[in-house]
Amino acid sequence: MTVNGDAIRVLLVDDQELFRRGVTMVLGADGGFEIEDVDDGDSALHRIAEEPFDVVLLDVRMPGRSGVEVCAAIKETSPTTGIIMLTASDDEADLYESIKAGAAGYLLKDGSTYDQVAEAVKLVAAGQSLISPSMATKLLDEFVHMSKGPAPATTLTARELQVLRLVAHGKSNRDIAGELFISENTVKNHIRNILEKLQMKSRMEAAMYAVRSKLIDDVL
After folding, report:
1. Three-state DSSP state, 57
2. Which residues of the chain have pLDDT under 50?
3. Are 131 and 105 in contact (CB under 8 A)?
4. Most distant CA pair in the chain, distance
5. Cα dihedral sign for 131, 193, 212, 60?
6. C-alpha pair distances (Å), 102 with each of 16, 33, 77, 105
7. Measuring CA to CA, how many Å separate 161 from each of 84, 157, 165, 170, 211?
8. How many angstroms from the chain centroid is the CA of residue 13?
9. What stretch of H or E contains 37?
10. What pLDDT, on a 0 to 100 scale, did the predictor assign at position 155?
């Protein structure tokens, strides 16, 4: 799978050399990926400032800058880059902060094979969001019980609500475009407007908001 016919450009950021080696070997063997790796957040931000990457695989806890801090910094300078957080811990606080910082995915290292990491990269590059199944309930519960939310959904247009509902169902930009008979670029524009209006940084956060706001009751 490629982005616009080109190989998916991936930056792996992790301070564990053995893990970096394993992921690099698996993705490097697939002609659909171009992968680089660094061992700290500052190096990652330096590389992203030099050239764009489609997806960043980012360790949550590293020496120096935390993964959450790096995630937020990347989204500020490169908002279209998809970020997948990687962690050996199922700490709920890390999960919540990562999503709020703009992460599109959250995977537990212990619960994911290298092949599953590769599949996650493909999904995020295609505009989808994902988290490890074991963390999904925790994330949903957090958003369901939040007492104070962002701007109300009434600020969204009818078309934006349609797009948001499809995003919450896990549809990719291509799937949404096909279902609504619009272009993928139009879908991207709608999603950008949705995030701006709801004051959010990622489609995953917007999807959880849609569930919490009962915009899509059948998802619960």
Report:
1. strand
2. 1-2, 146-148, 150, 218-220
3. yes
4. 49
5. positive
6. 23, 23, 12, 9
7. 26, 6, 6, 14, 12
8. 15
9. strand 33-38
10. 80
Task: Give all strands of the β-sheet with 8-13 in edge-to-edge order.
Answer: 33-38, 8-13, 55-59, 82-87, 105-108, 130-131
Token output for 122: 């493909």
Q: Give the CA distances from residue 199 to residues 103, 106, 189, 205, in Å, rounded to whole numbers and listed in that order.
A: 15, 21, 15, 10
Q: Please name the residue that has the structure tokens 């797009």.
A: 163
Which amino acid is present at 103? A
Phi and psi at residue 187, to the nearest 5°: -60, -45
pLDDT in tens, 139-152: 655 555 543 454 55
